[in-house]
Amino acid sequence: MKYKAEVKVTLKNGVRDPQGSAVDTILRRTGLEDSANVKVGKHFTLTVTAGNDKEAKNKLDEICHEVLSNPVLESYEIGRLETI
Amino acid sequence: MKAGVVVFPGTNCDRDTKKACEHFGWETDYIWHDESNLDDYDIIFLPGGFSYGDYIRAGGLATFSPVVQAIKDYVKNKKGYVVGICNGFQILCETGLLPGTLSVNDNTRFICDVVGLATSDDKMPEAISLPIAHGEGRYFADDETLKQIQQDNMIFLRYQDNPNGSLLNIAGLIDRKNNVIGMMPHPERAVFKETGNTDGMYFFKLLEAEIK
């Protein structure tokens, strides 16, 4: 079966996010929001082939851990799986 | 002494590195990223640039190339030295051959400058200056890893005036157990007097001494 998945990769809590801080500054400067606490991350959509949901989830875990994220800095979140 | 300079799509410091090696009389080849036989080399350089466009993360995709897989075996079997400069340092950290990682500079900008560095190796002067050019050079690791790095005496280069927010001012690491070196500054850009700075020479001399 083919599964379509969405993956979100974000910096771990406590890791400084200079890109997020830069956007915070802009939001403050423009008066749109004083404390937006912006965190910048990455969004991936991908398809995987697997026999069942569990297998697909395991495969995605491996892909996220090995390729899409750097476990030193980042954590990932796999969104709802959709069969296609 | 025979050196190899790895070339990925997007590498841009390969020629500078080869020229610097040749300046010291080392026979030097380019190694294309598809190559997996590294038996001939005493030292392998992963030069600076933007391997695979730095897509996903700096150095992230280069990790899966045949040459980097071969470098893991090269290190494991102690065949010689591996030196990662700038993008090469990022690749070594991504691969796990050096601890920690390099994240976005504190000021979010690409920094191109010449910086003062304190060295901790007695084969080099106490302070040298070298060019840097990177957007992701802020050394980061968890507390436990940082403690281990200090215990193992791995920090051989520190920024005197930290330009990117690197923890412990780390600019370069050396792992003497496995013969792996990673550094953000560019010694290959400071070898010829025409460039106005020849402090990079001290680094190449250090390598010569380490390998002999």
Keywords:
heterodimer; A: alpha+beta; Mth169, Chain: A; four-stranded antiparallel sheet; 4 strands; B: 212 residues; alpha/beta; Rossmann fold; two-stranded antiparallel ribbon; 5 helices; 24% helix; globular
Describe the structure.
The complex is a heterodimer of chains A (84) and B (212). Chain A is 35% helix and 31% strand. Chain A has helices at residues 18-30, 53-68, and strands at 2-11, 41-49, 74-78, 82-83. In chain A, strands 1, 2, 3 and 4 form a four-stranded antiparallel sheet that branches. Chain A is elongated and about 50 Å long. The N and C termini of chain A lie close together (8 Å). The model of chain A has no long low-confidence stretch (mean pLDDT 94). Chain B has a single domain, classed as Rossmann fold, CATH 3.40.50. Chain B is built from five helices and eleven strands; from the N terminus they run βαββαβαββββαβββα. In chain B, helix 1 links the parallel strand 1 and strand 2. A nine-stranded mixed sheet of chain B has the order 2-1-3-4-11-10-9-6-7, with helices on both faces. Chain B has a two-stranded antiparallel ribbon with strand order 5-8. The A-B interface holds A 15-16, 18-19, 21-22, 42, 67-68, 70, 72-73 and B 56-57, 60-61, 64, 93-94, 100-101, 103-108, 138, 140-142, 165.
Overall number of domains of chain B: 1
Strand order of the largest sheet of chain B: 2-1-3-4-11-10-9-6-7
CATH topology of chain B: Rossmann fold
Summed over residues and divided by their number, the pLDDT of chain B gives a mean of: 96
> What's the gyration radius of chain A in Å?
16 Å
* Oligomeric organization of the protein chains: heterodimer
Q: What's the mean pLDDT score of chain A?
A: 94
Secondary structure category of chain B: alpha/beta
The number of helices of chain A is: 2
Helix content of chain A: 25-40%
CATH architecture descriptor name of chain A: 2-Layer Sandwich
Which fold name fills CATH's third level, the topology of chain A? Answer: Mth169, Chain: A
> SSE order of chain B in H/E notation?
EHEEHEHEEEEHEEEH
Query: Helical amount among residues of chain B, as a percent range?
Result: 10-25%
| CATH homology group of chain B | Class I glutamine amidotransferase (GATase) domain
Number of helices of chain B: 5
Coarse structural class of chain A: alpha+beta
